[in-house]
Amino acid sequence: MTTAAVPVPVPISIPVREILPWAVLTAILSLVLLYFVGTAQGADSIIHEFVHDGRHLLGFPCH
Amino acid sequence: MKIGTVLVRGMLAGLLAAVLAFAFASVFGEPQVDNAIAVEEAGAGHDHGGAAEPGAEEEEVVSRGVQSTLGLAVATGAYGLAFGGLFALAFAFSYGRVGRLSARATAGVLGIVAFVTVFLVPFLKYPSNPPAVGQPDTINTRTTWYFVMVLISVVAAIAATVLASRLAARLGSWNAVLLGVLGYLVVVGVAALLLPVVNEVPEGFPASLLWNFRVASLGTQLLLWAGIGLLFGVFIERATRRVAAARA
């Protein structure tokens, strides 16, 4: 196996200054997605009913 | 390594893990959802999705057929994508900072920590429930308490990680990690004691059905997080090797 000869690289961390703007953007977009999957947002809306089974099985409160 | 590289791999791992979780949820979870709805329609529980008079056609916004297939797939996919991205960020912050673990080992440890803090601990306080369990008029407060529990758990885990990595130089890694875990457990334990109790299982609801549903829910989440941690580990290891090769 040729891959076995490649040494495992020493961890080089990514500077926090580079991560932060991406962190803000990703966090906001992710929270919006999770809001639609995981919350009631007015029980009888289409999105709410559409993701109904997923919400129950992923552990979010529902009725 | 570029942060964009990390994020793309996180989202890809999240989506692929969601496919696994979706398959598991379809096979093991959906029958329990159907059983619970059958119990509900037999009268033990509240109405669900409109007036369910015996014999009358239930008014559905989205049909059960769509909810249990496409709806479940989109929900799991969105959840996997969102947490795949957040997982990649957590990785970017911790790689090379928390101990000297390799990229793949960091991803594996993060996967376990994320499963426990994002899902398992909140689940122990507020377990998942099938349809027919839980009153419609308390859904907003129940959702709020659930999210509060998740938030406390995640913040406590981040604080414990920072604490442990600061103490590691003085106490050694084993002792520092144990202290971090202990601190986390104390915080979530106190939170679980103080947050309100929710017990809305209807009288006569089958205990075995409740158990089966919760196990299916646990399995779905376990597959999702195992998938994210392990797949991301494979993808990121390749990326770090490529970066190392380019430097050499």
Automatic annotation (TrEMBL), chain A:
InterPro entries: CbtB_put
Pfam families linked to this entry: CbtB
Membrane-traversing stretches: 19-37
Record's keyword terms, sorted: Membrane, Transmembrane, Transmembrane helix
Origin superkingdom: Bacteria
Protein name (database record): CbtB-domain containing protein
Top-level taxonomy: Bacteria, Bacillati, Actinomycetota, Actinomycetes, Pseudonocardiales
Automatic annotation (TrEMBL), chain B:
Transmembrane segments: 70-93, 105-124, 144-164, 176-198, 218-236
Matching InterPro entries: CbtA_put (IPR012666)
Xref: Pfam families: CbtA (PF09490)
Superkingdom of the organism of origin: Bacteria
Keyword terms, alphabetized: Membrane, Transmembrane, Transmembrane helix
Protein name per Swiss-Prot or TrEMBL: CbtA family protein
Organism lineage string: Bacteria, Bacillati, Actinomycetota, Actinomycetes, Pseudonocardiales
